[in-house]
Amino acid sequence: EGTQAPQPAGSPQGLLAQARGLFQVGDTYIVVETADAVVLIDQHAFHERILYYMLEHRLQSAPLERQRLLMPLPLNLSRAARELALSQREALLEFGFELEPFGPDGSLALTAAPKYSLARKHDEMIIELCEELAQGRRPGDFSTMRKSLVEMVACKAAIKAHDPLSPEQIKDLLRLGETVPHTFTCPHGRPTTYRLAFTDLEKVFHRR
Amino acid sequence: EGTQAPQPAGSPQGLLAQARGLFQVGDTYIVVETADAVVLIDQHAFHERILYYMLEHRLQSAPLERQRLLMPLPLNLSRAARELALSQREALLEFGFELEPFGPDGSLALTAAPKYSLARKHDEMIIELCEELAQGRRPGDFSTMRKSLVEMVACKAAIKAHDPLSPEQIKDLLRLGETVPHTFTCPHGRPTTYRLAFTDLEKVFHRR
Ligand SMILES: [Zn+2]
Ligand SMILES: [Zn+2]
What is the pLDDT of residue B120? Predict the structure, then answer.
């Protein structure tokens, strides 16, 4: 224990390698036991942070990789959301969502979906995205829309709170976290990890 | 979740029935996941509290049950500790430790040991007890000695910090805790449990 380099407080870099035990509590937090601490991770905020970083950085170079769906997924959108989706087809394509007119009534279908890891069904996600964007503030210019989309896609695509995770999914998430810097706060500055050092616990239990 | 009666903060009563997950961290703390909290338990302080209560209450009615050892265990005691042991044979017998002269040099052996659950070897424990009592404050009267013994036996017999526990041992300990009231502080008033409610965690992670 004495030879281990100290970790910056709250940084989950290298956590998986340090992990002696990995648990999930409340279907919402990941608990990592290390040699000198218990680290609690807000699974949604942590995953959101990772996806936010990945989306933001990959978009700077090229549109995100997408894969064509075997069958177009028809989208049951409100009129406002459909209009928004149509006007933002180019932005959505950058994120890997390809929309095409479908059927005689002018409705839309999803024909290609992003390759990056998503927690949820692509059609559900794009519907939520478009409805929220249509209901919320005005679309504004393309770069504003892109920023909103980065935030919204990161949030929508991330594992939710109250989602039970298998031990493998927990490991995958920690592994993904290690590919991205500064995962200890989410895009909105909220902490994603909370480190309870054993020295802190000793104080809680009046051991020192 | 809404139907569950609230638990007094830090009370581990009924914890085992409430447990959705049971872990040990740092080989020192038990982590109990319930529907609405993560409860951390200092395994030593918690077990000590239980033993303290059991010893104190059983001694009021009768000496503790003991079992004769198949072979007497010779005790390698200092002169002072042997004298203390000899002068306190009656008190030690109440705790289930039976000492008898052994060998030509006037040394002592343990011939019977208490039946209550002990984490360690009886001969090691009685040696530590007698040496510490001999080194420490004066034995004083019988009731003072009995009080010191209750405290010392509870501490010595309890699971130590840094002892790895199997899942079965964790359950046994929680089950034992449910037979005894007020296990949430140790005999010295130190907390034995620390409840981190999910509503607290929501604040930590700025979820509210
Ligand atoms: Zn979110
Ligand atoms: Zn103790």
Answer: 66
